[in-house]
Amino acid sequence: MMRQTLAALVASLAVSSALAATDYPSGYTKCVQNTGATCTFSGTRSVALGKSGSFVYATFTNSVVCSGGNFPSNGFTTSAWCSYANTATSSSGGSSSSSSTSSSSSSSSSSSGSSSSSSSSTSSSSSSSSSSSSSSSSSSSSSSSSSSSSSSGGTSYLSQYGNPVVTNRFTADPSAIVDNGRVYVYVGVDEAAVGGTDYVMNQWRVYSSADMKTWTDHGSPMNVSTFSWAKGRAWASHVVKKDNKYWWYVTVEHKTKSGMAIGVAVSDSPTGPFVDAKGSAIITNDMTTHTDIWWDDIDPAVLVDSDGSVHMWWGNTVLKYVKLKSNMTELNGSIQRINLDWFTEAPFVHQRGSTYYLSYAYNFPENIAYATASSPSGPWTYRGIIQTPNFNVGTNHQAIVELNGQSFIIYHTAALPTGGDYRRSVAVDKLSYNSDGTIQPAPQTSTGVHGISRRLQSNNFSDRYVRHSNFDVLLDPNVTPALDSRWKIVPGLANTGPGYVSFESVNAPGYYLRHVGFDFQLVKHDGSDNFRQDATFRVVPGLANNGASSFQSYNYSDRYIRHAAFSLKLEPVANDTDRQDATFRIVE
User: What is the per-residue pLDDT for 298?
Assistant: First the structure.
């Protein structure tokens, strides 16, 4: 029997949930659940919709058969497909018909097994971070499942796209350019083991997209060995285009001089191959004496101005600035110090109109702040915070670009399972300006540019929504900030099959709704099977309202998500009050 897609079954739940136990819509077949009765369906798009009272409803394209056997006690699922009978009686709108479908049987998998070929990015993302696959492979930015319909109102709620944009390895410190209608993102690769206490970074990679939705992995066109004078630490970098060549400025540890250094490679293509453009470092630690730390010469950012002049900023704890010669490899003047309050690292400069914007990591844990000037050389005026710190990684590093008339901020989080300070993940969100040119806050999100989010509204307290607050999960009205009540709904982490979902927080990427001792908390995905099971739920028609939804625990099938005194619990459902408390609407 053909396996059903997650999208199709969840879409079908929207129809079944809206049906009362005693009626059925035109175009559906009603099979009475009497002793020894089963229902099977044929046709290339047949989908079981679930059980409502004594009836099973299904879409069908060719024929529907009701015959001997028993309905599964937990409702009709893809694992319950059984053999087709040669003849059987069914009814549609009260009329009888016969089917002559040939017999075939299915015993594919149990209802708790995976029956879909699609998988969520979050459950598969714990793969090795140090992989360096071949170039030009396409990858979806998030879950590969299709959007599907909500059981309350038929709106799509499964998020097909989202953050992070790379899910098969850990990536960090993004830089970006836009060239010929594509954005190219240049990243470092975090290779530290789980629980590691230092950065392990040996290569850089390139990804590109024309729509911020589908990304192409161009592989690793450059690593530390590209620079004969370097010995390790492929830290943050920056790419700029000038004279039809692509110049990649990088941070590495110098082989013979103490501390970090900055070099540059060049290519005729944005995806490489790149070669050392100078044969030696542009900046070494002994050239700067503003601090006594060995890692203060890091994070280069380069801008080619409209008059052809070239400018470079870099630093940690102290922001430094210098002009470069037109050959892109030599300094053109003395190194200057720029005083910015609470500057930490990660400068990035872009121009919009006549205004220059200098964004940077501010304080620690790092916010992303920005300043503006009318000239690349300043003076710079502090303007405010663009992003607040990550939940569970101290650093951040941003790039700001415009593609097809929309601005974006590219940054890193620790959203992937087992992610942390030394296992980070690049993400993208939209960025907007006010009419006066100031930048609006751009919160980090799990939905990113093209993902969707939904709220879970209480069925019996319609002014209240499921939200997280200090990692607790509550049912609250008037949620502030509003993003605390928004969820990215993805295929189940423990079972990506039909009808199973997990709930990732929108404004705490990588954190999911999980039951812990039958209470609910917002918890970071740790990559374990226990986590996946505790954070997976089966969507069923609302226990108190068929037009809504209830969420059955994956690993405790007798328990449902419900609110008790406005706290979220995982409990059995025994009476009408319980059923009301365990029923929710998935809403915009």
Answer: 98
